[in-house]
Write a structure and sequence with these properties.
The complex is a heterodimer. Chain A has 24 helices and 28 strands. Chain A is α/β, with parallel strands linked by helices. In chain B, strand 15 (263-268), helix 11 (272-281) and strand 16 (285-289) form a beta-alpha-beta unit. In chain B, helix 1 packs across helix 14, helix 10 runs parallel beside helix 11 and helix 11 (272-281) runs parallel beside helix 12 (298-305). The longest helix of chain B has 16 residues, at 93-108. Chain B is globular. The mean pLDDT of chain B is 88. The chains are: A alpha/beta, B alpha/beta. The A-B interface holds A 102-106, 109-110, 244, 247-248, 251-252, 254-258, 260, 479-480, 482-483, 507, 533, 563, 570-573, 591, 594, 672-673, 696, 698-700, 702-703 and B 151, 181-183, 186-187, 211, 231, 249-251, 254-255, 258-261, 271-273, 275-277, 279-282, 295-301, 303.
């Protein structure tokens, strides 16, 4: 299997092993020995005979046996030399712990390139450089210099940050979370997050993957790989750099474009990855996904011995979009017969402050029996009459036969208490604060929907005359422009079947009059200039023109106004277009993200668009259901369905436009941005029309000419 | 008179006289002619290495034509537009004219053609009795107007000039319409040209606008602004056509940067996000202001992409002003631009008629 040399090596050399206990080169040998690696360990150090009782070699070339994996901890500058020797020795994998590479600037980048070239020459794969190492608990291999020795379990963890990685190892130990493997990515010169995900997809023992990243190396490859693994096991990602300040910090830290956060969100969605915003949430989810079955749907039963916490969780569930259904009548009867008369049989199900383990057991079993409940939240507040340890034991017992997720919030208890220990030992995710339970169930349900999502849905492919579009794009290039005129944009849109109004471009007042006569009144007139982005702001727009004389006058008027606002702008003419009736205004646009490719945008139109930020994003190419979701996610959806007795708008026609732009963006790489603003949407079955369209072409398409 | 003299002049500044002058010189040399050059009054004030004031255009021509004469001979009067009057007050009209005529005489000796380049406007030199039409008449030179066509006012301007020329009985060869944008080309040919010819002046050529000709290179900007080149040295010959300030979020920056071509980005050295966005979108160069050293991680990328990154001590506004100042004054000093200018004139101007 790919990456076997990393996860199942028969022998490991530690180049740069050290006798001094405080050195990284010592710690790694020690970790390998103490964690119980069964293969051969060869410390390499020219100045030592023995390290930690193992025979030491002066060079890897002197090792008498085959070496599968080499962990390198020598100073950065000599890593290429060591890698060269490893190549000659026939080593298959390198874990380069050493720093001093691309993270340090120009010389480091050069050094990293050199190192990579050596790896390619000998066909060696490399993890790092500048990483913490890796752990595989399945063969007791700890090739890191971390202080913690994690226990075995079902979670794999990949971290771009070494520091965060070691923190997570410590946390896992405290919370009894077990790992299958732990991977620190470092600079990802060769092996990237995607490569490790590909491996973990095939690893039977791994049930869920946690991922901390700041950016990705190859966006589209990452998505492809993540799509596959997320169909087999959940991948939970924590990505930093979500704010402007964070993005800046990530750029400085990783030395690459952090990329827009909306693009990342869209990418994760496309890949079926579950995204969290906080480290705490990542921990919470890892705990839940480790051993719990998935909820079939989003119906939750809350069992509590306190009213307040029960309501808190009920609120949280509601906000997260989870349902709190009433239990079936017969089950409520059953409860009625066994619980005190003042117990609340609604949801939350209140077993009262004096509840003992029997009451909890009864409620839990009823919940499991119910056909409508998909997941159960158990809340326990410390009460004199409630023996928390016994309740924990009951839950542990019942859970063994459960096919529904059970999460608990045993509140106000000491971490060392018997109850908490019992829960942890029996793989029941317990949270000190009750809202977390709602959060994890919601995210688990999100994963259920990802699995249900049909990956076979076809992508719309309409037949178009590509020559028309090619010619139009060529014309823009020949004119040495980056932006299309509205006329050109209309030609491209129209050839893809996007409805546009009749439009012509005039070059004299007389022409404007002739064109207006031909098109039919009323017409709108707008300045055509590649330099002017906001035509209205510079007086470049005249609406509702109803006569020839008016059209001629406005030609001059627009020229004058635009000239005084922007004397240097190139004016390619004045467009004369048919005034179309006002519809509901929406925006449909797309921009090519440098990492993930074309990103579709949909939102409410008009002048408040930048302020309201009522927009949704998806990565192209889009399926029809993705286009539907895009619309449904926004407030524009409510508006399009009609408010206060308005008739509904033609949402299908908008979906159509979204899909067609998705196809344009997917087919024509040189288009880097495209925006219809506004798109007027009319009543059902009456369609929509693009009033203005802007297309920007990639200036890189000019390079190499 | 068998010696040909052409006085290239214009009614307004920055019309592209130098380009036409250089091109006509090049064409004539290729035809085997001996070409002389004179700029009677120079306003492109510059100090040479000896500390003497020289005219920048005249210096360029002196080098192109390989003239073995002193700088003050190709341009007898180098004046500064802020102190011009004080300088002219020191000479009387008679002496001034004499000085210019002497210079003309030496410039035209043993030459088949003399190209005389006018000052920024026809009127310059009037105080000392040496405006363009008067000198043209005295030299016996034909005036060739070079005018930038921006709007319809050009016609009235030229007619006013003709009126002025008739006062001095100077000989007018015709006019060249220069820097005509593609959108105005049709009108220039079908409306402006007939209108001018009807009023009695020949339109000898219509030269289309060429962005590359009026663009600076990163190196030229660096020469003017100074600063330390941190990375991307291989890209110093990139062309700069637009200047943008990077002070927004990276996302909106990407939108702006994408819509501009060959742009120079001025931003703070601490804006790593903007710098990466700019590198990713593909700009001509970056100037980082405030002596704020950026993250070293950007250097290898900039080197790879050959996008120069220049660090300056000034604030963004000052830097922008410095760059703007040089962007308006572009000199066809390098081979590439001279070739381009010559080709442009050859293709769009009736040079045979002009040189006849």
């Amino acid at each position: 299997m790919l990456l076997d040399a990393f996860f199942r090596p028969r022998s490991i050399a530690v180049v740069g092993a050290s006798r001094e206990p405080e050195k990284v080169g010592h710690r790694i040998v020690k970790n390998l020995i103490e964690y119980g690696f069964k293969g051969h360990i060869f410390p390499i150090n020219p100045n030592a005979d023995k390290i930690l009782g193992l025979k030491c070699y002066k060079s890897i070339l002197e090792v008498p046996e085959q070496v599968d994996l080499a962990v390198i901890v020598v100073p950065g500058k000599i890593v290429p030399t060591v890698a060269e020797e490893c190549g000659k020795k026939g080593v298959k994998g390198l874990v380069v712990i050493s720093a001093g590479f691309s993270e340090t600037g120009r010389e480091g980048t050069q050094l990293e390139k050199e190192l990579l070239a050596i790896c390619r020459k000998y066909n060696i794969r490399m993890q790092g450089p500048n990483c913490l190492g890796l752990i595989n608990t399945q063969n007791r291999m700890n090739a890191t210099f971390a202080a913690a020795q994690p226990s075995a379990g079902n979670i794999a963890f990949i971290s771009q940050s070494g520091a965060l990685g070691s923190t997570i190892l410590n946390w896992a130990l405290q919370n009894d979370v077990g790992f299958t493997s732990f991977i620190s990515l470092g600079n990802e010169a060769d092996l990237t997050a995607a490569d490790f995900l590909e491996f973990l997809a095939e690893d039977e023992q791994t049930r869920a993957v946690g991922l901390y990243i700041e950016g990705v190396k190859d966006g589209s490859h990452f998505i492809e790989v993540a799509k596959k693994i997320s169909m087999k096991k959940p991948v939970i990602v924590l990505k930093s750099g979500t704010t402007d300040v964070g993005v800046r910090a990530v750029s400085s830290h990783t030395g690459s474009l952090a990329g827009s956060d909306v693009a990342f969100s869209a990418a994760f969605r496309k890949a079926g990855i579950i995204r969290v915003d906080r480290l705490e949430e990542l921990f919470e989810l890892v705990l839940a996904f480790e051993n719990q079955p998935l909820p079939k749907d989003k119906n939750v039963l809350i069992i509590t011995n306190g009213g307040g916490p029960g309501i808190l969780v009920a609120d949280a569930c509601e906000k997260m979009g989870l349902n709190l259904p009433l239990l079936e009548l017969n089950l409520r009867e059953e409860l009625r017969n066994s619980l005190p008369p003042h117990a609340s049989l609604n949801n939350p199900l209140d077993v009262l402050g004096d509840a003992d383990e029997k009451r909890y057991e009864l409620a839990l079993k009823i919940g499991l029996k119910s056909e409508i409940v998909d997941g159960i939240i158990i809340i326990l507040t410390p009460q004199a009459m409630t023996p928390s340890d016994k309740v924990a034991e009951i839950i542990a017992e019942v859970r063994k036969t459960s096919n529904k997720p059970i999460v608990t919030a045993f509140m106000g208890l000491d971490d060392d208490s018997a109850a908490i220990k019992t829960l942890l030992k029996n793989d029941i995710p317990n949270y000190p604060f009750p809202e977390s339970t709602a959060f994890v169930l919601k995210k688990m349900h999100e994963y259920t929907s990802i699995l249900k999502r049909s990956s076979r849905e076809p992508i719309l492919q309409i037949q178009v005359d590509r020559r028309i579009i090619k010619n139009t794009l060529d014309k823009i290039r020949k004119d040495d422009r980056l932006t299309s005129t509205v006329e050109e944009a209309f030609i491209i849109a129209e050839s893809f079947g996007i409805p546009v109004p009749k439009l012509m471009v005039a070059h004299s007042p007389k022409e404007a009059g002739d064109m207006a006569d031909l098109i039919g009144y009323p017409v709108a007139m707008k300045v055509v200039s590649p330099e002017i982005l906001h035509k209205t702001d510079v007086g470049g727009v005249a609406l509702n023109i109803t006569s020839r004389a008016e059209a001629e006058r406005n030609y001059e008027n627009i020229l004058n106004k635009v000239h005084s606002f922007m004397p240097q702008a190139r004016i390619l003419g004045i467009s004369v277009q048919k005034m179309v009736p006002q519809g509901k205004e929406v925006i449909v646009g797309a921009v090519r993200d440098p990492q993930f490719g074309p990103l579709m945008m949909f939102g409410l139109g008009g002048i408040y668009v930048n302020f309201l930020k009522d927009v949704s994003y998806r990565l192209c190419p889009l399926t029809r259901s993705e286009a539907e979701e895009m619309i449904e996610e926004t407030k524009a959806y409510t508006l399009l369905r009609g408010v206060r007795g308005e008739p509904p708008s033609d949402i299908n026609s908008v979906i159509d436009v979204i899909l067609r732009i998705s196809q344009i963006m997917t087919e024509f790489n040189e288009i880097i941005e495209m925006e219809i603003n506004p798109l007027f949407v009319y009543n059902e079955k009456k369609g929509c029309i693009a009033v203005d369209i802007k297309i920007t072409i990639d200036k890189m398409a000019y390079e190499g000419e | 008179m068998n010696k040909k003299a052409i006085y290239i002049a214009s009614t307004k500044e920055l019309s592209g006289k130098s380009i036409v002058t250089i091109a006509l010189a090049k064409i004539s040399i290729d035809l085997g002619k001996k070409v002389g050059y004179l700029k009677p009054i120079g306003l492109q004030y510059l100090l040479n290495e000896k500390g003497e004031p020289i005219d920048e255009d005249a210096e360029t021509m002196r080098k192109i034509l390989n003239l073995k004469v002193d700088a003050n001979q190709v341009c007898p009067f180098v004046v500064h537009r802020d102190t011009l009057l004080e300088q002219f007050m020191q000479v009387n009209s008679q002496k001034a004219l004499q000085k210019i005529l002497t210079a003309y005489k030496s410039a035209s000796e043993e030459k088949d053609l003399v190209l005389i380049e006018g000052p920024t406007a026809l009127s310059v030199g009037s105080y000392v009795g040496c405006p363009v039409p008067k000198l043209a008449a005295d030299f016996g030179a034909q005036i060739l107007l070079v005018e930038k066509y921006e709007n319809d006012l050009i016609v009235d301007n030229i007619l006013q000039a003709l009126d002025y020329f008739s006062k001095w009985k100077s000989n007018v060869l015709g006019v060249i319409l220069n820097q005509v944008s593609s959108t105005k080309m049709e009108k220039a040919k079908n409306v402006i040209k007939p209108a001018l010819e009807k009023s009695g002046i020949n339109v000898m050529g219509i030269i289309p606008e060429d962005k590359a000709l009026s663009a600076l290179t990163v190196k030229e900007i660096h020469d003017a602004v100074g600063g330390k080149i941190l990375a991307g040295k291989d890209g110093m010959n990139r062309i700069v056509q637009t200047v943008l300030i990077g002070a927004m979020t990276p996302e909106s920056a990407a939108g702006y940067f994408r819509k501009a071509k060959n742009e120079l980005i001025i931003t703070g050295g601490d804006r790593t996000d903007i710098i990466f966005t700019a590198l990713e979108v593909g700009v001509s160069a970056l100037i980082l202001t405030g002596n704020l050293y950026p993250s070293v991680k950007i250097f290898p990328r900039a080197d790879d992409l050959r996008i120069p990154i220049i660090l300056v001590p000034f604030d963004t506004y000052t830097t922008l002003q410095m760059v703007q100042k040089i962007i308006g004054r572009i000199k066809p000093t390098d081979e590439e631009r001279i070739k381009k200018a010559t080709r442009l004139v050859k293709e769009n101007v009736d040079w045979k008629q002009i040189l006849k």
